[in-house]
Design goal:
Rossmann fold, GMP Synthetase, Chain A, domain 3, 3 domains
Length: 461
């Protein structure tokens, strides 16, 4: 599809038909990013006031907390007022989700679930404004790097085991928007050979995918002696997990383009993206980010703390002062390009390992996570792959757990890893952290060789 038609006609028409104000929101973002910091924070407070009005009127759980905090959403609010509200976390959202949802939100409330990389899958609802915010935020970030909507992009992304009718419609849509999707859950050597050639033939302006999967493909290409010639490629965007320096160097050298990391989550949405100047800029028009110490107090800029976020476009199910579990540092510096957006100095997310099939196929950890997160009755989980033919699923059972859920776990993992793999489901009261104190929800003891090991290597810090 011609880039102009895809970006100016097909994509906007698609969003209009779905009643998503994506391109109107993009136009707003292009203007608001140049506001100075005080003006941008006034915009945040205006959006916060509207969000609290919605929550007080339509979401009983939030309404009670707003009343108890003594807040009047009809009055001008400050950041100090926001901090009078108690924080919430994933457990609150799981336990009180029905009391948080505005089902009659304009455009409708749509059920979704998190990727489960935190070990606790969350079912929640989002609306058209949240969807528009995510899509427009990514498009603005791409424009920072010279990539316009409708120009060719390659996605190294998750895909189901078998395509159903809906997935085939999505494939057609991807082609219409000039998006080539390669399955990050099926990365055998033969598949990666094909992916390298497909990228070379497609000549994208942008490559986007899980950080570890893009690094894995880069390592494979180097081992195979495959040399990319991608003169149109402007940027490789990574997401879903921390991007370690050695991975950034490997990707940049192999693909011959700069690498920028994205920060976000399914429950909060697109959160931040790197610029050409190497700064990670917050999507400040859609998110208020607080960085708190273990006692819930704000830390000074430059100090490490937990990311607590308020999704200003989360009208369908408000996430207000939501503890994400991610550890970040805010920077006291301003964007050198002159944008008023807040600057994040560092993101320390959760690490995951790869899963390896007996035939040598290497899969992103989400291939296993997606199996567990879809099963009712799984409150928490951890996957431990001991060998290519033996994997252990540690499960903390919740409401709805039964023998059928256990069978579905076994069958789902066999579909991903092969029918010969032995699956052990262990029921636990709780899942302990690693010796380092970090949470790791997919751990593989299957070694990777050569540069593949380097690509998949996680920080030991």
């Amino acid at each position: 599809m011609h880039a102009w038609f895809a970006g100016r006609v097909a994509y906007p028409l698609h969003e209009w038909l779905l009643k998503r104000p994506t391109f109107a929101y993009l136009a707003e973002l292009e203007r608001s990013q140049w506001l100075d910091r005080p003006a941008l924070e006034r915009l945040q407070m205006d959006k916060l006031r509207r969000l609290l009005e919605i929550a007080a009127a339509h979401c009983p759980w939030h309404a009670r907390r707003i009343r108890e905090a003594g807040l009047d959403p009809k009055k001008t609010l400050t950041f100090e007022d926001l901090r009078r509200l108690p924080t919430m976390d994933k457990t609150d959202a799981m336990a009180h989700g029905d009391g948080m949802v505005w089902r009659d939100v304009p455009g409708g409330a749509y059920k979704y679930n998190t990727g489960g990389s935190s070990g606790q899958p969350l079912i929640f609802h989002f609306g058209r404004r949240r969807q528009a915010s995510d899509a427009a935020g990514r498009m603005r970030a791409r424009r920072w790097w010279g990539v316009q909507p409708g120009e060719r992009e390659v996605y190294l992304w998750g895909a189901p085991v078998e395509l159903n009718k809906t997935d085939r419609v999505k494939q057609l849509r991807d082609r219409l928007f000039n998006q080539l999707v390669l399955n990050a859950f099926e990365m055998s050597p033969a598949r990666m050979d094909a992916y390298c050639q497909a990228i070379q033939d497609y000549q994208p302006r942008c490559i986007y995918g899980y950080a570890s999967s893009v690094a894995l493909l880069a390592a494979h290409a180097r081992e195979r002696g495959f040399v990319f010639r991608l003169p149109r490629l402007k940027i490789v965007c990574t997401t879903g997990e921390p991007l370690y320096p050695h991975q950034r160097t490997l990707i940049q050298e192999v693909f011959g383009a700069p690498v920028a990391n994205e920060f976000g989550s399914r429950d909060i949405g697109f959160t931040a993206h790197e610029t050409l100047e190497g700064r990670m800029l917050l999507m400040s028009e859609s998110i208020i980010l607080e960085v708190l110490d273990p006692e819930g107090r704000p830390v000074a800029p430059g100090q490490l703390g937990e990311a607590v976020m308020t999704g200003l476009e989360s009208q369908a199910q408000p996430f207000i002062r939501y503890r994400t579990g991610d550890m970040v540092r805010l920077s006291p510096e301003a964007d050198p390009a002159g944008r008023g957006l807040h600057v994040i100095a560092e993101v320390l997310g959760r690490s995951t390992d790869f899963l390896v099939r007996a035939d040598g196929t290497i899969m992103h950890a989400l291939a296993g996570i997606y199996v567990l997160r879809a099963i009712e009755g799984v409150a928490e989980f951890k996957l431990v792959q001991h060998t290519v033919d033996r994997i252990e699923a540690q499960v903390v059972p919740g409401p709805g757990w039964n023998d059928t859920a256990k069978h579905r776990i076994e069958q789902g993992l066999k579909e991903r890893l092969g029918p010969e793999v032995g699956v052990e489901v262990r029921l636990l009261d709780s899942i302990p952290t690693e010796a380092s104190g970090k949470h790791r929800y997919v751990v593989s003891h299957v070694p990777l060789g050569g540069e593949l090991k380097l690509a998949a290597q996680q920080s030991s810090g």
